[in-house]
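stage 2 :: seqdesign
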């Protein structure tokens, strides 16, 4: 009998498939292995009596580092401590959109700061990204976060110590490091290999990954970067040049909007930084 399930983890050719409330350990059919490697997050058809994966359902997306498929949402966690890195944040938002993943900007530790969060929320008010203020410590808006994560595969990204593990614990209502993969955190340095693992929480999934480096914007040409800034869209048709990059061209409607304060100047400044970084990288190819 063939049944459909989701791969929660793969270790040395063995795949853990979650289906109808059970986890079944499967191998992949030999002919399948030739065409594609099965990844955590893959939706698969497997033979229940033989415990063999027969088919991988076409993917929505696939990341290489970490190796995972079909991510719906990325919760980009920022906070007031450590000092917020918005250049990284913007790159994560772009990388998410590039991979057909919905970015959610999640400002954690709201119990500590109010001024910074207001400033940052302003910057992103016209970008196409959900903004949510939470506190893993006080529990503020954890229910909202759970609502947003509803019905999909979610992963967490962001600088170290912003509170990603704390948020996962708050969502689960228990200390995940004691039950799951995150325990490997403690044994780091002892050469423990961590695997990407997907955990089911009520009606959604969370990917517990050994570190997100979704940062490769390899497939993005520097002159296409502007397409990932939603706040530019309503102005760009009024630029003098149709090929305007909105960096320093004359009569650029986007730059005029920045000067009027209609587009965040901080976002635009980081846009130019990312633009030149990409251009520099791509000029060597
Ligand atoms: P990760 O490296 O992103 O997984 O961050 P952790 O979850 O390990 O948290 C880093 C530090 O921030 C820990 O000392 C947490 O107790 C603290 N922390 C996490 N969330 C909050 C919060 O909402 N408020 C405050 N005040 N501290 C928090
Ligand atoms: Zn322009």
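stage 2 :: out
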């Amino acid at each position: 009998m063939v049944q459909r399930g989701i791969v929660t983890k793969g270790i040395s050719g063995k795949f853990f498939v979650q289906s109808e409330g059970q986890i079944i350990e499967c191998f992949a059919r030999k002919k399948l292995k030739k065409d594609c490697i099965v990844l955590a997050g893959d939706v698969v058809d497997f033979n229940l009596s033989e415990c063999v994966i027969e088919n991988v359902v076409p993917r929505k997306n696939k990341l290489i580092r970490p190796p995972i498929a079909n991510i719906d949402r990325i919760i980009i966690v920022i906070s007031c401590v450590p000092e917020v890195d918005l250049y990284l944040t913007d790159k994560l938002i772009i990388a998410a959109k590039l991979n057909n993943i919905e970015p959610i900007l999640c400002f954690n530790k709201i119990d500590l700061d109010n001024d910074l969060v207001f400033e940052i929320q302003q910057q992103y008010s016209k970008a196409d990204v959900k903004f949510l203020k939470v506190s893993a410590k006080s529990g503020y808006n954890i229910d909202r976060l759970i609502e947003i994560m509803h019905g999909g595969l979610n992963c967490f990204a962001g600088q170290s110590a912003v509170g990603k593990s704390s948020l996962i614990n708050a969502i689960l209502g228990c200390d995940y490091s004691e039950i799951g993969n995150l325990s490997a955190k403690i044994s780091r340095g002892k050469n423990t290999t961590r695997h990407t693992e997907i955990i089911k929480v009520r009606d959604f999934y969370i990917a517990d990954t050994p570190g997100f480096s979704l940062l490769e914007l390899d497939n993005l040409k520097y002159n296409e970067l502007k397409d990932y800034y939603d706040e530019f869209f309503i102005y760009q048709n009024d630029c003098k040049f149709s090929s305007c990059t909105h960096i320093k061209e004359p009569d650029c409607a986007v730059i005029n909007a920045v000067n009027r304060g209609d587009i965040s100047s901080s976002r635009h400044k980081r846009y130019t930084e990312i633009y030149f970084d990409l251009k520099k990288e791509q000029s060597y190819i």
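stage 3 :: structure notes
- The pocket of guanosine-5'-diphosphate (ligand 1) is lined by residues 108-109, 111-112, 135-137, 160-166 (CB under 6 Å).
- The radius of gyration is 21 Å.
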